[in-house]
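Example record used in the benchmark description.
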Amino acid sequence: MHTAHVDDTTDTGGPLTTSIAWATWALFVGLGLMLSGAGLFATVAGIRSETEGFPTVLIGLVTAAYYLGFLAGSRLTLRLLGSVGHIRVYAALASLLSATVLVTGMLVTPYAWIALRFISGACLAGQYVVAESWLNQLVTNANRGRILSLYSLVTIVAYGIGQVSVGLVDPNTLTVFGIAAIVTSLAVAPVALSAEAAPPLVAPPERMTLRELFEIVPTGVITSALVGVAHGSFLGLAAVYATRGGVSSGSIGLFVALPTVGSLLLHLPIAAASDDIDRRAVGALAAFAAAGAAVLLVVSDVGSVPSMLAMVLIGGTTYPLYSIAGAYTNDWIPTEKLTAAAS
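Model output (structure tokens):
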């Protein structure tokens, strides 16, 4: 039986501290703005791909390209962090993402969208690597679950706000893409202008292969991978699913944002429990609950009360499951390799 790696050089307590909150507020505000724009962008893309009559196979390719971009973006960002630092990488990726959102609204063709969604996926993955490596330098195993849960909660709620806001603007216009691009651009301001936003100075992160990570902590890698597979279809195609089910454009945003409601209700309690109880046990219970909710969604009519309840439960159990997998993985990783592990 291993003994988990523990770093208590910065904080010995479990609860969130004022110093950590002060050091991370700008990052959380910036990410909140960025994910609001991303949520609006993704939902509109799903609706438009259906209303424009894109073939089903091409809709799938557009969605898959987004997640392929995640793979490329995470690796590239890891290299850039060691050479130019967190804030410059964050600002560059936010600017590129904003431009990509706007061009997507100008070129409404499936083949252009495959390339553009790849770029947007790479940008967002890079921002996640920046944020998670930043946070992992500030926390310890005693409060890691709570901090990563708060981080996930901020991003999930912001993404959900973007999804719901699709009902306020006609999704068939360039304006909605312009709004998403503007909000994404504003995400640079809090991080760039706050002196407290600067993360600790560190040496370039050590490299780590996926195989090496798997050998150290297979449970965390497998769990993260399976949650990613589930979220890839669930988040990428939820708007298409609702559109084909006859849900109105104004209600689609609410339907696809219901997982965020579940996350608001359950994310922090589940993640906090994983800090105090065996993370694997808490994760297993969350996974079984998510599977039951998925079955309920399959047998329910789209837009019905049972289907909406299922969406809430899926969000409330799968989002914290990713946080638990990340916290469990980081429990076993040496401090100098936390950034590489996040990538």
